[in-house]
Amino acid sequence: MEALINDHQTQNLDVLLIQEPSITTYQTHVNHSAWRLYRPTPETGADRFRSLIYVNKRISTSSHRQILCNHPDIAAVKIWTADTQLLLFSVYIPSVPLGTPDSASPEPAFTAIQNTITAALRDGRRPTSIVLAGDFNRHHPTWGGNYIQPRLIEEASDLIDFSKPTTSTALDHRSDSTNNPELLVKCHLYHENYGSDHRATYSEWNIQPQNKPNNKARKVYDRADWARIGEEVARQTGPWKGIKTRPGLDRVVEKLISATAQAVDQLTPDTRPTPYSKRWFTPDLKVQQVEGNQLRRRWQASCAELGREHVNTITAFQLM
């Protein structure tokens, strides 16, 4: 772990999802000034955990936080931008013992993940992508290998079923952006294993905010020149002709609607909002604001000239 954390090349990474980490001689997990360490949230009293998450301190705490996951072998964090959020899970599932296969069921871990995803998606304000990374200790032809014993394939069936979107899994609630292949930029084995018997996987995801199209400016209809708009509509539609059929009526109505919309769009001024503008601030409120400021200035002038206790000052205060 020390070699991984201290490697200058890993300083360019944003998140490390670690399983079965080693501990230091002080019986603690490795800490580093460039990384924030997140452990599983359940209070088990254990000093050593089988899954950790390191988040680079370049990522502000205002754009990420740890989320609760009620399982001792799962750590989870949420990273978000203005447009999207990413749920990251570091998962460890122990291998299946030969004699007692039921004792290593992954169902408690899957249930904890489902509950965490459901809670994170409750606000529904951002499209969400979900990444499950970990040491699952399962073998299946889906992720490689042609000569796998049938017993091992059967043991991986729960994991395969969980990863498929069905009506019984919280993975169903993720948005369409999760299935967008453009989000995944790179995915390959990491160049170094740092003496471990496992190979790390490097994944790069694009969660940068997308530029939103400029919205059309709102119109100030109370300042529109309606007389000129009427003249422009009359000019475009021309003199009325006799309408004798329903299709003829439809054509005239469509022409009238099109001419009216075009004239209103051309002859109605756009709003010019400032960063401090409020849609609820009406002209009537502006008049009241001006009157209030005038009364306040009169009271201040009376305080300076006559004093706060003078009858004119008291009257000005009551009017204010």
Write the layout of secondary structure elements.
Layout: H1 2-6, E1 15-19, E2 35-38, E3 51-56, E4 64-66, E5 74-80, E6 85-92, H2 107-120, E7 128-135, H3 150-155, H4 157-163, E8 184-189, E9 201-205, H5 226-237, H6 246-267, H7 283-306, H8 311-319
Parallel strand pairs: 6-7
Antiparallel strand pairs: 1-3, 2-3, 4-5, 5-6, 8-9
Structural account:
The chain folds into three domains: 1-205, Endonuclease/exonuclease/phosphatase (Deoxyribonuclease I, Chain A, 4-Layer Sandwich); 221-267; 283-319. The strands form three sheets. The chain has a four-stranded mixed β-sheet, covered by helices on one side. Strands 1-3-2 form a three-stranded antiparallel β-sheet, with no helix packed on it. The protein is flat and about 90 Å long. A hairpin with a 7-residue loop joins strand 4 (64-66) and strand 5. The chain has helices spanning 2-6, 107-120, 150-155, 157-163, 226-237, 246-267, 283-306, 311-319, and strands at residues 15-19, 35-38, 51-56, 64-66, 74-80, 85-92, 128-135, 184-189, 201-205. The protein is α+β, with helices and mostly antiparallel strands and 320 residues long. It is 31% helix and 16% strand. The protein is built from eight helices and nine strands. The longest helix has 24 residues, at 283-306. The model is unreliable at 166-179 (pLDDT under 50). Helix 5 (226-237) runs antiparallel to helix 6 and helix 7 (283-306) runs antiparallel to helix 8 (311-319).
